[in-house]
Amino acid sequence: MLLTNRTKNLYQEVILDHNKNPRNFRVIEHPSHTAKGHNPLCGDKLDVYLVLDENQTVQDVSFVGDGCAISKASASIMTTIVKDKHIDEVRTIFRGFHDMATGKIEADEDPKLRRLRAFSGVRDLPARVKCATLAWHTLDAALKDEEIITTE
Ligand code: ZN
Prior knowledge:
The chain has one domain (22-150): Sufe protein. Chain: A (Alpha-Beta Complex). The protein has a 3-stranded antiparallel beta sheet with strand order 1-2-3, with helices on one face. It is globular, with a radius of gyration of 15 Å. The protein is built from 4 helices and 3 strands. The longest helix is centred in the last third of the chain and has 18 residues, at 126-143. The termini are far apart. By secondary structure, it is an alpha+beta fold. Strand 2 (44-52) and strand 3 (58-66) form a beta hairpin. The site of zinc ion has 8 residues, from helix 2.
């Protein structure tokens, strides 16, 4: 899929908006899962917080940290996408997003990735793939209990 200039501008606007006004940008005091993500190539650092309910559905999700516009916008959009979803679905979306960001699939192949298409341009910028996927890798690590915090 070739991106028209109009689409490119729209995608850029989405990223700039989420970078400027990140959604769910806060610490969750008693998360069921949390992990820290670091992308040394760019200097992006993110902490992701999750609260899963007894059905393994994301009840609450947030992030804090600092990084480039792409990493922050990606984290912000991720929190809005995974809220109220079962972790199996979250993992499926993450795999699809990863395939899209690395150019393995086209952005319009999977309707689940509709809201992530703003990042389809990173496939041409290999260093940016890590920025775009950092929040998702961090979320994945949290779900794997690679750094679990138990609620009191
Ligand atoms: Zn970055």
